[in-house]
Automatic annotation (TrEMBL):
Superkingdom: Bacteria
Ranges annotated as spanning the membrane: 12-33, 53-75, 103-123, 192-213
Protein name: Heat shock protein DnaJ-like protein
Record key words, sorted: Membrane, Transmembrane, Transmembrane helix
InterPro entries to which the protein is assigned, alphabetical: J_dom_sf
The organism's taxonomic lineage, starting at the top: Bacteria, Pseudomonadati, Pseudomonadota, Alphaproteobacteria, Hyphomicrobiales
Length: 253
């Protein structure tokens, strides 16, 4: 009994639904035909009038169903188009945001490097001109000391090893020292007599005596004589200057 009652109730709801649907279709058909200006024929016979009502209801339901289908398809198409456009906009915004973020990061890095220029440039200059040569000299000295440790019994000191390594001798080193001392002490005068006097530490304008000149000559020759590990070229130059001064002053050797 409960099952029959349930089925009966379901059939009743279905009948009511179809009846309402038919009435809505009939009303829609009448309104549509009235809107377009079509007058529907009306029969005098009750049977034909019932058939006309059913036909008009079917036509209205079909038209309503078609319109609803078109509207649904249109709304669905518009929704899909909007969603696709929204996805495109979101993707573009994401790429644009990523590009802007990368640009901002690069700009910040460039500004940071620019701000560090006053600090980095002096440090690099100091490193290239002072620190790097000093480190290179230390490295070379350490390498030479390792080499010196292997041949230590052949040289008295590390300086002797350095002179031998550079192809120099003690006399060559002393000669260069004398040359540098002469260059510092003897600026180039205007004439040969002034140059000769300056070589002995005497001024050409002073009226120095023969004894003072001989004392200056002996002092300089002790420093430059070849027998005393001096400079042969400097000794010859001193002798030429002595002869020039004696000739100018009228002195004898």
């Amino acid at each position: 009994m409960a099952t029959l009652k349930s089925e009966t109730g379901s059939d009743a709801l279905g009948f009511v639904g179809w009846t309402l649907y038919a009435m809505v279709g009939l009303c829609f058909c009448l309104v549509a035909f009235e809107f377009v200006g079509i007058r529907l024929p009306v029969s005098d016979s009750p049977g034909l009038r019932l058939l006309e009502i059913l036909a008009y209801s079917a036509i209205g339901c079909a038209m309503l169903h078609l319109i609803l289908t078109v509207v649904y398809a249109f709304v669905r198409t518009i929704s899909a188009t909007l969603l696709a456009g929204l996805e495109i906009v979101l993707g573009f915004a994401e790429r644009l945001g990523t590009t802007l973020a990368q640009f901002a990061i690069r700009l910040l890095l460039a500004l940071a490097r620019l701000a560090l220029v006053p600090v980095v440039w002096p440090w690099r200059t100091f490193q290239a001109r002072v620190l790097a040569p000093w480190q290179e000299r230390r490295r070379q000295t350490a390498e030479l000391r390792r080499l010196y440790a292997d041949v230590k019994d052949q040289y008295r000191t590390f300086d002797d090893f350095l002179r031998a390594f550079n192809g120099e001798s003690r006399n060559d080193k002393d000669t260069r020292k004398d040359d540098r001392r002469d260059e510092r002490a003897d600026p180039a005068p205007a004439d040969a007599f002034a140059a000769a006097c300056a070589l002995f530490g005497l001024a050409a304008a002073d009226s120095f005596t023969n004894a003072a000149f001989k004392a200056a000559y002996r002092k300089r020759m002790k420093e430059a004589h070849p027998d005393l590990s001096g400079n042969t070229a400097l000794a010859a130059k001193l002798n030429e200057a002595r002869d020039l001064i004696n000739a100018r002053k009228g002195w004898k050797r």
